[in-house]
Amino acid sequence: MITIRPIRADEIPDAKSVILTVAYNIFGFNGSLEDSIRHFEASGELNDMDDVQAHYFDAEGTFLVVLNGEQVIGSGALRKWDGRTAELKRMWLLEAYHGQGIGYLLLSELIDFARKNGYVRIRLQTSPEQVRALVFYRKVGFYEIPCYNEETGEISMELKISE
After folding, report:
1. Dihedral of CA 7/12/18/23: which sign?
2. Domain count, the chain
3. I need a surface site. Which of 5, 39, 57, 109 has the fewest CB within 10 A?
4. Count of Cβ atoms closer than 10 Å to residue 26 Cβ
5. Residue 44 contacts residue 30 (beta carbons within 8 Å)
6. What value does the mean pLDDT take over residues 25-35?
7. Alpha-carbon distance 125 to 133, whole Å?
């Protein structure tokens, strides 16, 4: 049974594992999955997950996990960008679960959270290599905006959720 709920501290390593596994499959890192994990850990790219409480929950955001039974199969988070804008982060789902509507359910939960907390738009950045994610985001109404972090070379998108 699929469940979506706020992450517990003991699930953070499993959520990181999901993110790194999916990223490995998308980006084709040279070397093994373990090499890829060591690379990302050393880069500090997932440092926000070392203190989910501070980076998300205490900062007017949330961090959700998707569970199949007790197994973490996906994640998605929102954090405050400014008073009326939230940023979508860490939206990942194991490939075996794609095409089942789980991503839509997860995003719907995050949008509901954003609305209840007074946000009027959600922004995100994703890499051009994440073709499937870009199709998904466009399908649910995200549109491209000028890049808000030029150093990354990523695509910036936004979704208006209320006026």
Report:
1. positive
2. 1
3. 5
4. 16
5. no
6. 72
7. 11
